[in-house]
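note to self — DONT lose this again. spent like an hour looking for the file last time. sequence + predicted structure for the chain T wanted, 208 res
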Amino acid sequence: MTEIGRIEKPRADQYRNMKKIYFVRNLYLPKNATDRYREIYVRYWSEVDDHLKRLEAAGAVSKIFCESIYMSGDEAMKVLSAMNARLEQIVREKVDAGAALLPLEDKEIFGAYVDWSNCLMIVRTEEVHKKIHEFLHEALNRRYEHIRTVLADAIAVGEAALLIMREEDQKSLGLPPDIELFTISPPAYEDLLGFIRDRDSGKEYWRT
């Protein structure tokens, strides 16, 4: 894995004939976000956009995959806009340049994962919690298996794909060994981590 904000031209050439994924951690804007969080959020996506453009020296993005998206075309773009308007702007720019926004999830598998996740949040007893957690783990493994297959089959040698999802999911995913992963970590991400670690502001980060 390469964690990167910039690739120099000579170094970029060595990646041209490889399968590449440019990974971006998805960052959402809570409905009642504080001014400080909102400032980090805006700066984060601005820096992601800038770093991604420089990273494309190793290969322009030709395919885009985003968590929660199991549809394609205009429908996928509408869902993306409702989910994260700033991310939708970046994706739309890539699509206008010739990239394709493709389904990453399977509707039924993703639906089961969401349902079990929601159930886990409202359960009260330890016995039921344990049982639901088993179902959730099974659904999550099915989801990861599907995503791995999609990425392995969709990305050709020499192509670069943009992958947007939660960091914990990306780390648990286990990408095929022939795919080179580039993680985009702009300076604002470090500010976000500090914000989350703060005892008071960290609580605000998890509100929706």
